[in-house]
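Quick one, tokens below. Sequence please?
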């Protein structure tokens, strides 16, 4: 079960924090879209996604060769509240990043 210290350690990383905020804004993104918005490589994003998946913060679904991620509906309510608060303070920046990126239709 996710503990507060674990959540804060996960979100302390700028890339993982950005991924969580992007998923909160978009609902669901494939790895290629996350790479486009964060300007990070696919292996690096996949490693971060593995950590978020292990903590049960994100859920995934496969569609052919693509993996799509979304925030887990099963995360603890307290964690969802923290993510929601962070998203509220970063919403404009997140929306700008998404608008600036060329998202694919995986």
């Amino acid at each position: 079960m996710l503990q507060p210290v674990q959540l804060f350690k996960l979100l302390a990383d700028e890339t993982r924090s950005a991924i969580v905020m992007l998923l909160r804004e978009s609902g669901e993104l494939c790895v290629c879209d996350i790479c486009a918005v964060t300007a990070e490589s696919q292996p690096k994003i996949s490693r971060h996604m593995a950590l978020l998946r292990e903590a049960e913060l994100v859920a995934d679904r496969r569609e052919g060769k693509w993996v799509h991620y979304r925030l887990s509906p099963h995360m603890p309510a307290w964690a969802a509240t923290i993510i929601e608060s962070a998203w509220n303070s970063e919403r404009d920046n997140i929306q700008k990043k998404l608008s600036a990126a060329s998202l694919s239709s995986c």
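The first strand starts at residue 29 and ends at 30. The beta strands are 29-30, 58-63, 66-71.
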